[in-house]
Design goal:
The protein is α/β, with parallel strands linked by helices. Helix content is 38%, strand content 20%. The protein has a 5-stranded parallel sheet with strand order 3-2-4-5-6, sandwiched between helices.
Length: 575
């Protein structure tokens, strides 16, 4: 039976999902690894010595950028425009993926002496992606060619306008097309029909990097020179929650090495304000939880140009000031997210019986820059797909976040006739709808969610990789776990289960006292320290013995290194 615990952040108890038990044959194949790690490898599908070795060593070869549909034509058009001295605008998005892609391509074109500048639409005035007003303005300023990064694959009308105005247009995007591909001069998108590029999950910045490699090769430069921007690729890929598999894993691993050894000035300054004490040990998690949110805060709270200028700055004083500004914006973003979350929950009645949470509010009630974060927090707390929208004079603009069991963009596709625009991924999307269609859209989404989701789909689960005793948590295991890095989406950090632990010490920690620090001992007498974020309420309701799910990691405190359990969930032990 579950303890009567209501977590301080409103989270509910979770299902613990056991892995496939390793077979005797796989035990033999993987015998060189510690027992707990053998189970991890088997659970991830690496059931032979060769598969395990290849995964841990990682790929060393990047895919040929010219395998991407449209790459030859895009590079030829870019080079011709550069050589003619014509004006090129790199048109990005205001999230970290879009900002890093913009910074990368602008600097690459400038290295080739191209006449280029950036354009990132303002979230509040223009919204996501290509927009007609921006295209007309850029044409009026003498722009000859626009190349998009991380946007544009659904911008059919805007591409038609660019053509009408006599502008050349290259669209590069990683999102899913919807029906007709825009009538641009060239479209680069691994997900478009007829594209044979072998890896479909590159982020927008990953595609910008592939364009740069191809551009350098055709310009007579060593394409490996593009590797100087792999730090930006790592930042954008991890922040966009792209899968850390295959080529993404290779690019992020190389980018992390750059960030650890030769951080550019802007990132160095950002690390300082983000309290990253050991830049040389930077991880993908540090990007996801520390650097990425601060870079995103610029576009959410004011203008993404601050983040772009930080990434492109080589001046220590300028970078320091910009980093401080992002730090302040991020703190403001955190406060407002909590306020907006509380408002949304106050508007939603009978949450337990709703298959999808939908809340619309005025600009005073919801900050339009953080509605996606509010939706994500509601998903985390209530495990339901969530839509949060800001009602404007004519339109409502909304952000959506979802759960594994519900593909939010496909649900929106079923309602395309009601919306002005929409797009996204399986678990994150956005849309714009005329106010007169808003309630009908809400009702249709409720119907779709009710039809697709079963009650058991709405109970969150945690998949663990292996059950082990604390005595197996030793340095060799940690060394192999580190070889799995970078971890993230589709290559998560392994989760272990240990049962029947006695809690020797416990206390609340953190500014709001919502976290838990404790020391635990197993039946063999092994003692380990543990930290449990957002699980502080267990300090007041601790059972005699507990089972825990956790990550095994190395912790630094006051210059001392020690093993630590980073606890994901707790339940009373049945032992």
């Amino acid at each position: 039976m579950m303890a009567d615990i209501q977590y301080s952040n409103g989270q509910k108890p979770k299902r613990w999902i056991a892995p496939r038990k390793i077979t005797p044959e796989a035990e033999k194949q993987l015998s060189i690894y510690p027992a707990a790690f053998r189970q991890v490898l088997y659970h991830r599908g690496f059931d032979t010595a060769v598969k395990a070795h290849d995964f841990l060593q990682g790929s060393t070869e990047e895919n040929d950028p010219f395998a991407m549909k449209g790459m030859d034509e895009a590079v030829a058009l870019l080079l011709a425009t550069i050589q003619a001295g014509k004006s090129i605008v790199v048109y990005g998005d205001y999230d970290v993926d879009g900002v890093t892609a913009t910074a990368l391509l602008v600097q690459a074109i400038r290295l080739l002496n191209g006449n280029t500048r950036e354009y990132i639409p303002n979230r509040f005035d223009e919204g996501y992606g290509l927009n007609s007003d921006a295209i007309e303005m850029l044409r009026g300023q003498g722009t000859d060619l626009i190349i998009t990064v991380d946007c544009g694959i659904r911008s059919v009308r805007e591409a038609e306008l660019a053509r009408k105005l006599g502008m050349r247009l290259i669209i590069s995007d990683h999102h899913h097309p919807l029906g007709m591909v825009p009538p641009a001069d060239v479209v680069i998108c691994p997900r478009q029909e007829g594209d044979v590029y072998p890896y479909k999950d590159l982020a927008g910045v990953g595609i910008a990097y592939k364009i740069t490699r191809a551009l350098f090769q055709q310009a007579g430069l060593d394409p490996r020179e593009a590797a100087q921007w792999l730090d930006l690729v790592a930042l954008g890929t991890v922040s966009d929650i792209a899968p850390l598999t295959d080529e993404n894993r290779l690019l992020v691993k190389r980018g992390l090495h750059l960030l650890q050894t030769k951080p550019r000035q802007g990132i160095f300054s950002l690390m300082a304000v983000a309290d990253i004490k050991r830049p040389g040990a930077l991880t993908a998690a540090d990007i996801g939880f520390k650097l990425g949110p601060r870079l995103n805060a610029a576009g959410r709270m004011e203008s993404a140009l601050d983040a772009l200028h930080l990434l492109m700055s080589s001046d220590a004083q300028e970078a320091g000031l910009l980093a401080q500004k992002l730090q302040i914006q991020n703190a403001d973003r955190q406060d407002r997210t909590l306020q907006n979350q509380k408002f949304a929950e106050s508007q939603l009645t009978d949450i337990a019986n709703l298959p999808i949470l939908i809340s619309f509010g005025s600009e005073e009630e919801f900050h339009s820059g953080i509605v996606g974060l509010v939706a994500a927090r509601l998903v985390e707390c209530h495990y339901r797909p969530t839509v949060i929208g800001v009602i404007g004079e004519e339109y409502t603009r909304a952000s959506c976040r979802s759960i594994d069991e519900f593909h939010i963009t496909r649900a929106l596709d079923e309602c395309a006739d009601l919306m002005v625009r929409h797009g996204g991924h399986s678990k994150a999307a956005g849309f714009t709808v005329l106010n007169e269609n808003r309630e009908e859209l809400k009702e249709r989404l409720l119907e779709i969610a009710a039809r697709q989701l079963k009650p058991e789909d709405l109970i969150p689960g945690i998949q663990f990789d292996a059950e082990t005793g604390l005595n197996e948590l030793q340095a060799p295991l940690l060394a192999f776990l580190e070889q799995m890095e970078p971890t993230g989406n589709e290559n998560p950090k392994p989760i272990f289960l240990t049962r029947g632990l006695q809690v020797l010490r416990k206390c609340r920690i953190g500014h709001e006292k919502t976290h838990l620090r404790m020391t635990v001992r197993d039946e063999n007498g092994t003692v380990v320290d543990a930290v449990a974020f957002r699980l502080g309420d267990w300090a007041d309701n601790m059972p005699e013995k507990i089972d825990i799910l956790y990550h095994f990691e190395l912790n630094e405190y006051n210059g001392q290194m020690s093993f630590q359990l980073n606890v994901r969930d707790i339940r009373p032990s049945e032992n």
